[in-house]
């Protein structure tokens, strides 16, 4: 199977969200709001002042409000003289997009569209109650922590903290003077975010220690102290970021996902202590169904497939077999981003 084009996620630090509201008259109020009316309103939502270093990559429809004040997810067919669209216009840094485009060209791939990471993950990470709440979603991956703040379906803010699970592994390797492989193994085996929760301060034999004799014995509390310090820094940087943005007081719950930290016990407790907001590990319905290494790709496919009201396009994928070679345009499940 040859992939010729693809959608990809974009880290929050390269994304700017602009809230916009458009009120539109129905072309024929007696026939109801048409698909053309809705598409036209989405196109109008794009009409904003765009900084020279930014480019529109998406318009996310948040709410449709009819002229009687009723909010609907799909206004098509509603007998209303007008409607208001509340939407988020998603901008991306042009320099980052140029770099990504260059990388993809070298791989002979076209870019179908870019989606902010936490926006894509929202639908599989949050449960039904959280989807309607004011929530901060934290995806703590290997190298970065992505922040996404949602007020119901309204995408409010996103950013990236350049620390993740690999940072913790590197800390362990550096402080204990051991290999990255052993550091990763110890992190997974003894992973605990708070030293105060240690039940038994075991001895650990380090087998790749670069000290003179090649081996060394430490207490598990020494290892956990290293993990605790970095997790504290990650949550402190998140706390500083959302406080500076003036959105911390609006967040009711924090949901953590990502392979970088969810295998470290009590990371949610550490987050609650520092953020002073309820924190929990993600329990969304699909979290337990999809293997962790596939969640980002799976959530991206689901997000693209669920979009309404815009033209659909599909990635260009060639399927081949021993008998013949043919090109198949996959089922049109993906949305065209107005960029």
Describe the structure.
With 339 residues, this protein is of the alpha+beta class. The chain has a domain at 166-234: 2-Layer Sandwich (Nucleotidyltransferase, domain 5), CATH 3.30.420. The protein contains 9 helices and 18 strands. It has helices spanning 35-45, 94-106, 117-125, 128-131, 165-176, 180-190, 220-244, 267-275, 295-306, and strands spanning 2-3, 5-10, 15-25, 54-66, 71-72, 82-93, 110-116, 134-140, 145-151, 154-161, 203-206, 216-219, 253-257, 279-281, 312-313, 316-320, 325-329, 334-335. A 5-stranded mixed beta sheet has the order 10-9-8-13-14, with helices on both faces. The protein has a 4-stranded antiparallel beta sheet with strand order 3-6-4-5. Strand 13, helix 8 (267-275) and strand 14 (279-281) form a beta-alpha-beta unit. Helix 3 (117-125) packs across helix 9, helix 5 (165-176) crosses helix 7 and helix 7 (220-244) packs across helix 8 (267-275). The longest helix is centred in the C-terminal third of the chain and has 25 residues, at 220-244. It starts with a strand and ends with a strand.
């Amino acid at each position: 199977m040859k992939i010729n084009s693809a959608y990809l996620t974009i880290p929050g630090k390269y994304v700017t969200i602009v809230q916009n509201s458009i009120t539109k008259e129905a072309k024929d109020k007696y026939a109801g709001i048409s698909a053309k009316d809705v598409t036209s309103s989405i196109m109008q939502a794009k009409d904003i002042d765009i900084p020279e270093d930014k480019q529109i990559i998406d318009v996310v429809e948040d709410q449709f409000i009819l002229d009687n004040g009723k909010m609907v997810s799909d206004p098509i067919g509603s007998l209303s003289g007008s409607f208001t669209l509340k939407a988020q216009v998603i901008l991306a840094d042009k320099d980052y997009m140029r770099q990504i485009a260059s990388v993809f060209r070298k791989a002979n791939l076209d870019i179908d569209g870019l989606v902010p990471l936490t926006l894509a993950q929202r639908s599989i990470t949050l449960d039904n109650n959280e989807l309607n709440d004011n929530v901060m979603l934290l995806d703590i991956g290997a190298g970065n922590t992505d922040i996404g703040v949602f007020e119901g379906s309204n995408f409010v803010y996103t950013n990236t903290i350049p620390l993740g699970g690999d940072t913790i592994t590197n800390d362990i390797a550096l402080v204990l003077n051991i290999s990255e492989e052993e550091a990763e193994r110890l992190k997974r085996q003894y992973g605990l975010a708070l030293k105060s929760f240690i039940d038994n301060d075991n001895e650990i034999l380090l087998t790749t220690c670069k000290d003179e004799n090649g081996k060394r014995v430490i207490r598990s509390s020494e290892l956990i102290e290293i993990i605790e310090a970095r997790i504290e820094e990650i949550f402190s940087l998140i706390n500083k970021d959302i406080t500076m943005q003036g959105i911390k007081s609006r967040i009711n719950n924090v949901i953590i996902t990502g392979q970088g930290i969810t295998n470290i016990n009590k990371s949610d407790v550490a987050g609650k202590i520092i953020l002073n907001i309820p924190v929990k590990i993600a329990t969304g319905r699909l979290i337990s169904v999809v293997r962790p290494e596939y969640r980002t790709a799976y959530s991206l496919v689901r997000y693209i497939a669920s979009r309404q009201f815009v033209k659909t396009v599909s990635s260009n994928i060639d399927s081949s077999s021993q008998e013949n070679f043919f090109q198949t345009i996959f089922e049109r499940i993906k949305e065209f981003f107005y960029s």
